[in-house]
């Protein structure tokens, strides 16, 4: 089965940076979209950024200009570079993969901005 394993979360002061990684295992289909989501306590899960199979990217308005999604196909790893972090970015961050729907999810990595 496909497995996604996130890492790189932590605690940082406002204005700081973090880079999240998501190791992807056994994603063999080239038409997968990979993405980052987040969920803060008491709030619904929201999409943060995604890379479509054709290389196009999408960002939530709240992170545009601050976050960058990328992937290294050779390393089977998805990244989320987060700069100028704000307290409202505090959440559990999840990576996900799928075609029409996001079928596969990691267990998440916590990001706390104070």
Give a description of the structure.
Strand 7 (67-72) and strand 8 form a beta hairpin. It is built from no helices and eleven strands. It is globular, with a radius of gyration of 13 Å. The strands form two sheets. Strands 2, 4, 5, 6, 9, 10 and 11 form a seven-stranded mixed β-sheet that branches. With 114 residues, it is mostly beta strands. The chain has strands at residues 3-7, 10-12, 18-25, 33-39, 46-51, 57-59, 67-72, 77-82, 91-98, 102-105, 109-113. The relative contact order is 0.33.
Write a brief caption for the model.
With 114 residues, this protein is mainly beta. Helix content is 0%, strand content 54%.
Features of the shown structure:
114 residues, 7-stranded mixed β-sheet, 4-stranded antiparallel β-sheet, mainly beta, single chain
Mean pLDDT: 93
By secondary-structure content and strand pairing, the structural class works out as mainly beta
Termini Cα gap: 37 Å
- Indicate the proportion of strand residues: over 45%
- Bin the helical content: under 10%
Looking at the chains present, what oligomeric state does this protein adopt? Answer: single chain
Task: Let me know the number of strands.
Answer: 11
Please specify the SSE layout and strand pairing.
Layout: E1 3-7, E2 10-12, E3 18-25, E4 33-39, E5 46-51, E6 57-59, E7 67-72, E8 77-82, E9 91-98, E10 102-105, E11 109-113
Parallel strand pairs: 2-11
Antiparallel strand pairs: 1-3, 3-8, 4-5, 4-9, 5-6, 7-8, 9-10, 9-11
């Amino acid at each position: 089965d496909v497995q996604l394993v996130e890492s790189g979360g932590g605690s940082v002061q406002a204005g700081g940076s973090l880079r999240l990684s998501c190791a992807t295992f056994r994603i063999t289909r080239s038409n997968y979209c990979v993405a980052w989501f987040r969920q803060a306590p008491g709030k619904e899960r929201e999409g943060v950024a995604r890379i479509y199979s054709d290389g196009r990217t999408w960002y939530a308005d709240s992170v545009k200009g601050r976050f960058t999604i990328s992937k290294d196909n050779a390393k089977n790893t998805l990244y989320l570079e987060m700069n100028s972090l704000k307290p409202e970015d505090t959440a559990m961050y999840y990576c996900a993969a799928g075609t029409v729907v996001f079928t596969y999810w990691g267990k998440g990595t916590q990001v706390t901005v104070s």
